[in-house]
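Render this sequence as a predicted structure.
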Amino acid sequence: MPEIPEGVSDVLLRFDVAAAVDILLVSGSIYWLLLLVRGTTAMTVLRGVGVLLVGAFLLSRVLDLRVLNWILRNSVAGLLIGMIIVFQPEIRRALERLGRTGLHSFLRKEERQDALNVVVRAALVLARQNIGALIVLERETGLQDVIDTGVPINASISSELLLSIFPESSPLHDGAVVVRVDQIVAAGCTLPLSESPLPAEYGMRHRAAVGITERTDAVVIVVSEERGQVSLCSNGRMVPDLDEQHLSRQLHRLFDLDLVEADPATDRRVS
């Protein structure tokens, strides 16, 4: 039986339950952060930083570059601070996700169900009339900073109210509507723009819809004025060109609701 090297045996002797838990926590945290930045511009930056550091380390070792070795050994703290600054949006998003309790998903389900039915029908009517729209559905992350950029409405949601906000004749058409459960909280709101690349056919309205979902857990319905299409944005991703059935199914899945037909007595179809 081959003899275990002395250095390896010392490591094995010090390896206990605490060390295993330590390794699992660090590995899990790194894996979770990588999943968080996957598919974003931050992943490209992280890949570039990794290639640069590995290349500098190998070059310093092979050519015995003492100054570069000294810089690499003494720049760990600076690199950590720099990474925090560069990846501040992703870190903020991670902490925001940790703070979600999930309680809102179990509260006021009936009101949320009726509101989704109203929003779906109104969005399809706006699409048929080629009227652009941005409808932000708040979930657990508070959107008060977005609400403060618009005009307070604080009215019960209805198809008629939504259809009166977005036509060009309305002073509030150029902005987003924020819906909290079954209330239209504000209209004419300004949304942060996404920095992710989007296809050329999508304009500022779609970029704003993706932008707010990159920073929060909100769900956004965006209606294209040019193409008369309805798209759904969540988690920084967009599902384009949805019909009524697919839009309703996606919304109910995101809000963890059972998909049922609306009661005609309480939520009539508009045309």
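Summary. Residues 192 and 202 are 16 Å apart (CA to CA). The radius of gyration is 25 Å.
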